[in-house]
Every structure is written in C-alpha cells, then in structure tokens.
C-alpha cells in the first residue's frame, strides 16, 4: 500500500551517497579507519570517552549486559513499555528480567518508584529506555542505583543527542550518564545506517572488554594484520562478531552531521501535534509538560481513550500509516508468567502516529481531522 502520510521517512541525500561511494572506491569494506572516525565523532558529539560501532542496538545491549558481568543468578529491571530486544538482551546472559512500569499517561518513561519497588537481593542492574526520545528521570534513577549498588544501562535507541538536566543544573547527553549507553541506527531512527548501532561508556575497563567482545575476543583486527601492524592474534575471551563495516560507518558520519537539524524539525512536528490535539479529550499526548529542547522526538505515541480500533481504521482509510509502540513485553508468550500489571489505564491503546522531519503542519492537520471523535459513526 502506498501511504499518503507514512509512519516514517528516511532522509538520504547527496552527502550520504558521496560518503558511501568514496568507501566503495577504496575497496576495503570491513571495519577500519572510517569506522574509527565515526566512533570518534559520535563520542565527541555526546561528550563520552569511548564509543564502539556495532551491528545493531540489540548487539550493543547484549554487550552492555556482558561487560557488566550480568549472568544466570542475576535480575535486571527493565521497562515493560519498550521494544522486546531490551529484555531479550538480558535473557541472552541467562539473567531474569523484572518489569517496571511507566510513570503515567503523560510520562511514559520508566517510573523510578516502580524500579525501587522491584529491587531484590538478586538485582544487579537497571535498564532505562529514553522512550520516544524523552529522557528518563535520571536524578532519581541514579540515586536509586547508588543506594542499592546497581549498574545502569541506557537504551538510547530513540534518543541520539537527547540530554538530561540534573537538579544542580548540569546537563549530560543520554548515553553518557549510566555505566553503558546503547544506540540504534535502524532504518527508521533519527539517524540511520540501515542497520547498525553504537555502544558508549566512560569506563576504561568496560571499553577494553567491549572492544574485545565485539570482535571474537581477538587481540588484533583483520586490517591491522593486512597492513602488517600485527603478525597474529590471541583470543582472550569468548567474543562475538558484532562489528560494523565501513559502508555503514560512512553513512553514519554523514547522518550525524545533520542530526541536530533533523531533531530540531522533529521537535517542531511534536509541537504541531500538541497544538492540534490540545482540545481533544479522547487523545492524550504524552510529555507535553517536558522541556522539549531536551528531547529528540523519534516516534509520536498517543493514547486513545475510546474507539481505538475505529480511529486506527479511519486513519488507514485516509492513507495515514500508524503503528503501536508498544505492547508491553509481559503480554508476549515468551514473557508470560511475569506478575507485572500496569497502572496506566489505557496502556493497551497506544497509537503511534507519523513522525519524521519532512512532515508539514498540513500533514498533522490531516491526521487530526481523520481522528476527530465526533466524525466517527455510532
């Protein structure tokens, strides 16, 4: 189906094409200098010491759990409202996932009170998800982590360049606040390499382990041996093939350059939505009380009070693509058995509306018109 207004749109221009073409002409495509440059620029952009490009955000999350020593006897607290990969990456280590709730319909990030209530003697870490590009309440979460000696993994898949202002008025980019940060460059993300991700940390020991685990646990890379800088290698830990390639890194460098501008446009689209639905009692727009300048709106989730299916069908009939971010993870068969129950009354009625930088205000008004409550037949 060809959508009049798609859910997302990819912005690829001449800069991206030129960057990728340059790599192809060099004929060395596996991880090397372009990837190192991408990592350096990304680390510099979010003011973190170390950044490692990987195959995707799920790989980043897996590595984060591994380098923090999470294993079969541990529990990790994770938001129930997130993509399933956040929880799956914990399960890869043999650890148990314990689900925490969101704050409210108005703030769908993980609730610090719910995190603290779920802590047991087996809890080793907390994964926070900066949902929809809005940072979690990191003051309170850091206080809880210090109180119970817990590690923090930041899932920043929605939030490249989002930042949190602490109570002392200092600011930090997400991905530089916890022990490890994990980013996604999937095709619909704020910046994309098609597939791909980044893992970040300020901890030298964790960075050392990430570098090894990303590439089979080997002490030297293929290009080092190709160039004669290393004659062989040792394998010092059970690693994985989570490396990225030069093509995706080149694409990432170009995308990173325009990320700030694209995030600015996304904030403008969010404001249009907030204004359009300001007087619609059937639609709740989350995060309207937040400082929007801190956020990087990635998706546009709204909560529908009544006639959810009818509204979704009306949008489809109008050529407007929607989705749902997300069904809570404990609703899936793999995670059945969890005692989680959300306090968010209409959490099952989340509807994701189109969100991308090239949207116009007219697009938003068309979406508003298709969702008018009184226009739906009784």
From the structure above, extract its key features.
3-stranded antiparallel β-sheet; 378 residues; 11 helices; globular; Aspartate Aminotransferase, domain 1; Aspartate Aminotransferase, domain 2; 2 domains; 7-stranded mixed β-sheet; 34% helix; alpha/beta
Question: Overview of this structure, please?
Answer:
- The chain has 378 residues and is of the alpha/beta class.
- The chain folds into two domains: 14-256, 3-Layer(aba) Sandwich (Aspartate Aminotransferase, domain 2); 259-375, Alpha-Beta Complex (Aspartate Aminotransferase, domain 1).
- It is 34% helix and 14% strand.
- The protein has eleven helices and twelve strands.
- The strands form three sheets. A seven-stranded mixed beta sheet has the order 1-9-8-5-4-2-3.
- Helix 1 (14-26) runs antiparallel to helix 9, helix 2 runs parallel beside helix 9 (246-276) and helix 3 (57-67) runs parallel beside helix 4.
- The longest helix is centred in the last third of the chain and has 31 residues, at 246-276.
- It is globular, with a radius of gyration of 21 Å.
- The mean pLDDT is 94.
